[in-house]
Amino acid sequence: MGVMITACLVGIFLIWLTGLRLAWEFQRGVIFRLGRYLQTRGPGLYWILPLGLETATTIDIRTRTVSAERQETITRDSVTIKVNAVVWYRVIDPSASVIAVEDVSAAVYQLALTSLRNIIGQHDLDEVLQERNKINDYLRENIHDYTTRWGIEIERFEMKDVELPEAMQRVMSMQAEAIREKRARIIKAEAEFEASTKLQAASQQMAGNPLALELRRMQMISEVGAENNSTTVLMIPSDFVTLAKSLSDYLQEKKEPVKAKIVTSDDQK
User: Fold this and answer.
1) Which of 76, 124, 139, 147 is the Cys-Cys partner for 157 at CB 3.0 to 4.6 Å?
2) Could you read off the pLDDT of 222-242 as tens digits, one per residue?
């Protein structure tokens, strides 16, 4: 009799042991009793009713990474490009991730692919290349409603690479070269304009002070002599230039025809 009781106790203990479950810190156990959701347990050690009365599904709540394969899509301005992306998500509601969707990883992957194609088709090529952060935010918001129902939080949705056709790459290279040339010409023109303004101010200041012009001339001669020692420089005073200008003006006046005055009879009276 005592042996049978002992055997029964040992059997009950072994059956009780089959109900023990262990969930790590990054895991949660979704408990179902007779097919109906009961509660979520963990982390740590917990116990469920054995003999199939209760079942536990372990869910990993760590952040997962899904790499969306390269997709060939068309932008709004009819340019064919290839884009791939990466999605980071985690489970925030273990029970919903089990009850609301059959395979949460496959669902998130397919949702990321379709959303990537749809969003790229709503933007021009320039927006895809220059406003990636804005498009990434729009991608994350676009799938937020679906993933929330599945107990999923999308942490990041980033386009990883955009591949352009070779013809489009050549066109964009030519465009970038033209823009750089335009900027270089604008900078050169601004520099020439500023230099001319400074030279005009300097010339006005030297015109009022002849000694300043002579000092500048002496400085130029010293610079030429320092660079080219074999150069012969002839000094001509500025007075000769002024004298030559005055003589030219005098000769020009002499060449002009003298208008004869016609005297009439009325003038004589």
Assistant:
1) 139
2) 766 666 566 555 556 656 656
Please, where in the chain does CATH 3.30.479.30 lie?
Answer: 64-168
In three-state form (DSSP H/G/I as H, E/B as E, the rest C), the secondary structure along the chain is: CHHHHHHHHHHHHHHHHCCEEEECCCEEEEEEECCEEEEEECCEEEECCCCCCEEEEEEECCCEEEEEEEEEEECCCCCEEEEEEEEEEEECCHHHHHHCCCCHHHHHHHHHHHHHHHHHCCCCHHHHHHCHHHHHHHHHHHCHHHHHHCCEEEEEEEEEEEECCHHHHHHHHHHHHHHHHHHHHHHHHHHHHHHHHHHHHHHHHHHCCHHHHHHHHHHHHHHHHHHCCCCCCCCCCHHHHHHHHHHHHHHHHHHCCCCCCCCCHHHHC
pTM assigned to the model: 0.61
Q: What is the pLDDT of residues 156-210, one digit of tens each?
A: 888 888 888 777 777 777 877 888 888 888 998 888 888 888 878 877 776 677 6
